[in-house]
Amino acid sequence: MSTIDATALLAAERWLRFHDLRAGPGFGSVTLWVDAAEPAQTETPLGSGSDRIDRIIGPVHAIESGPGSLRYRVVFRDCVAWTWRDESYALPEESEDHSTMLRCYRSSRFLDYCRASGFAEGMTDRPLEHFAVVTLDAILDVLCPESPEVTARPVPQD
Question: CA angle at residue 82 from 81 to 87, to 5 degrees?
Fold first, then answer.
């Protein structure tokens, strides 16, 4: 089966859910799997634990993924550094582009930190870039010299 580059599809997704993260394939690589997500058709109670807040906000449409959604496999190679941040506590970058869930930064706090730590420079002869994949659950930040390889397949039935 041939592999199709799904970078543009991933970049156009509005919501992503984390599925899995693993080191590899090979040394210096990290692979992330994320699922496309959409608002549920039916409303559900918020369930905040506070009747008052639930009445104020009202019912919500959960953002879900499941069979029929696309599952993206995102492979970063020649990684110098990567970090995983809980989306709830992540500070936005000054130049953050909210139009895409696959982001590339030429300058960022993560890139500055890696350079200041002294291990980023000299790891590769190519310029390093900060890539981020933003999901509803977390953000994966990766420092590497080239764009990730992105493929997609439908989420299988359970």
Answer: 155
133 close to 16: Cβ distance less than 8 angstroms: yes
Are 23 and 32 contacting, i.e. CB atoms less than 8 angstroms apart?
A: no
Rounded distance between C-alpha atoms, residue 135 and residue 94, angstroms:
19
pTM comes to: 0.83
What is the model's pLDDT at position 3?
A: 61
Instruction: Please say if the pLDDT value at position 118 is more than 80.
Output: no
Q: Are 110 and 129 in contact (CB under 8 A)?
A: no
Diameter of the chain measured on Cα atoms: 58
Amino acid, single-letter form, for residue 119:
F
User: Going by C-beta distance under 8 Å and a sequence separation of 6 or more, which residues neighbour residue 29?
Assistant: 23, 75, 76, 77, 78, 79
Q: Are strands 81-86 and 102-105 parallel, antiparallel or unpaired?
A: unpaired
DSSP per residue over the chain, as a string?
A: ------HHHHHH-S-EEEEEEEE-SSTT-EEEEEEE-EE-SS-B----S-HHHHHHH--B--EE--TTSEEEEEEE-S-SEEEEEEGGGPPPPTT--TT-SEEEESS-HHHHHHHHHTSSTTS-SSPPEEEEEE-SSEEEEEEESSPPEEEEEEPPP-
